[in-house]
What we know:
CoA-binding protein, NAD(P)-bd_dom_sf, CoA-bd, globular, 4 helices, Rossmann fold, alpha/beta
Amino acid sequence: MKKTAIIGATTNTSRYAYAAAERLTSHGHEIVPIGIKKGEVQGEEILNLREKPKVEGLDTVTMYIGPQNQPEWYDYILSLEPKRIIFNPGTENEEFEKLAKDKGVQTERACTLVMLSVGNY
């Protein structure tokens, strides 16, 4: 299974990031929720994005913060050394995608929820 960081994790049950946490765990993937608000999701504490927590053994980063809020986190997210970054609808960012690809990180413009539902996560 793929250890996945959810950037923009939230306890708000109406948000897609919350649904992604639920769906990822129900499919057996380990999640690392990272966000700016405290709380927990699917039994995992939301790590404080501002503290730039170190995460080892990451496969995937799935983005749930808009492109206007991403630049200050580029270096941090790339320092996690993910194999891929999924840019969910509304998070697409050509600049960040190029930076990631230059570091050898696969990028996908896709929906984590759809990928899980069709079995190509």
